[in-house]
Write a structure and sequence with these properties.
about 15% strand; alpha+beta; 2 helices; two-stranded antiparallel sheet
Amino acid sequence: MDLAAKVTSKGQITIPKEVREALGITEGDQIVFRVEQHRALLAKTPNLIDLAGTVDVPAAKRGMAWDEVRRNTRRARAEARR
């Protein structure tokens, strides 16, 4: 699907309705742009709440404080670099 949009004097564009519908973009959604050479790719970013429960967490790690998760991850990465 190739669709055009005009850039305003403020550098804004309106995402065409067909693109919004195809990507499921609605008001308030976050969009990410990736520039690759002379092209920009647009994607809807996932809502992290919608991802809840989609990743299996080992029983031993459930309920672990986030600070502890980060410390353990940093320690494991440092050890892997040795």
